[in-house]
Amino acid sequence: MIENNKMEQEKQRVAGLSVIAAFLLTSFKLVIGLMTGSLGLLSEALHSGLDLFAAVITWFSVRISDKPPDKEHPYGHGKIENFSALVETFLLLITCAWIVYEAVKRLSSGDTHIEVNVFSYIVVVTSIVIDITRSRALYRVARKYNSQALEADALHFSTDIWSSAVVLLGLILAHFGWFFADSVAALAVALIVLGVSYRLGKRAVDVLLDRSPASVVASVESVLSQAQGILRYHDLKVRSAGAENFIEVTIHVEAGLSLELAHEISHRIENQIIKALPRSFVHVHIEPDKHQPEKIEKEE
Fold first, then answer.
1. What does the alpha-carbon distance between residue 196 and residue 93 come to, in Å, rounded to a whole number?
2. How far apart are the first and last CA of the chain?
3. Do 181 and 252 belong to one domain?
4. Which is it for strands 280-289 and 244-254: parallel, antiparallel or unpaired?
5. CA-CA distance, 291 to 248, in Å (whole number)?
6. Are 212 and 237 in contact (CB under 8 A)?
7. Which of residues 208, 243, 269 is at a domain's end?
8. What is the mean pLDDT of residues 205-230?
């Protein structure tokens, strides 16, 4: 119980700090973008604004996802994290559409002149430093507790580092009179965001549709192939919800084994799978089998 409280507090703390950082960066970029007229900075401000919204969603999702199962939600509330990641995907796609529209409009009209000053550089460099710090913190906690919402947030903000670097390059070129570079930089930001959107969206949809995660299946099969006392297995089913994995499998044991020994074998396999995949709920069904092969087989 104490460990669960510690996990919840750490996840909520890092998500809350992400909200604060996103708010400060959005405000800073918007003010400087409006002052200079830089589409690169304005696109970054919009991107950060959606980051802020996404960070708030993530903060709420990690608060809800760690609630224990109840009568109406016997499998827990973990999928709220995956839904949160899907919402972030749609927000990122909206960002892409606006950035591309404005960039193409400016390039086609030739109205690409912007004012570049010291604040333009300060806001971008500050953004890069903050994004590096918060993305590392989010990744650390996400991997520690297998949180897809925090991992999606970390991936989201890590792309800000690259997009800010692209905007910085555009500002430098614009400083030397190549003003079109700012709009080109904005298009590059859109491409980066589009790539992130695809990755986040695919993972979220896979989990929401209960697609078996290949890495989890491989880990379970590795445990089963090395387990002692089982002859073969089949009907392996794996699905994820947030940080949890739900695993079901049927194993065959030698006919004639006592109920106690068969139960001991199934219990040992469950513990081995949980050891390999923490935060997993495992159900092993046992069937007697008179056939005894030389090695464990997987039934197709």
1. 9
2. 40
3. no
4. parallel
5. 23
6. yes
7. 208
8. 88
The 10s digit of each residue's pLDDT in 107-131 is: 776 655 555 567 777 877 888 888 8
Give me 117's structure tokens. Answer: 């000053």
Q: Under DSSP, is residue 14 helix (H, G, I), strand (E, B) or coil?
A: helix
Q: By the 8 A CB rule, do 32 and 119 touch?
A: yes
Does the pLDDT at position 247 exceed 90? Answer: yes
**Do 189 and 219 sit in the same domain of this protein?**
no
Do residues 204 and 250 share a domain? Answer: no
- Rounded Cα distance, 160 and 155, in Å: 9
Token pair, residue 139, equals 């990744």
Comparison of pLDDT for 50 and 209, the residue scoring more: 209
Domain count, the chain: 2
To the question of pTM greater than 0.90 for the whole model, the response is: no
**Cα distance between residue 118 and residue 124, in whole Å:** 10
* Alpha-carbon gap, residue 262 to 255, rounded angstroms: 10
Rounded distance between C-alpha atoms, residue 282 and residue 284, angstroms: 7
Full domain range(s) for residue 103? 2-208
Angle value at C-alpha 45, between 43 and 47, nearest 5 degrees: 70
- Output DSSP code: residue 232: E
Q: What is the CATH number of the domain that holds 221?
A: 3.30.70.1350
Q: Which residue(s) pair with 254 in the sheet?
A: 289
- 87 near 106, Cβ under 8 Å? no
- 243 and 106 inside one domain: no
Distance from C-alpha of 163 to C-alpha of 209, rounded to nearest angstrom: 31
* Alpha carbons 162 and 168: distance in angstroms, whole number: 10
| Separation CA 178–CA 172 (nearest Å) | 9
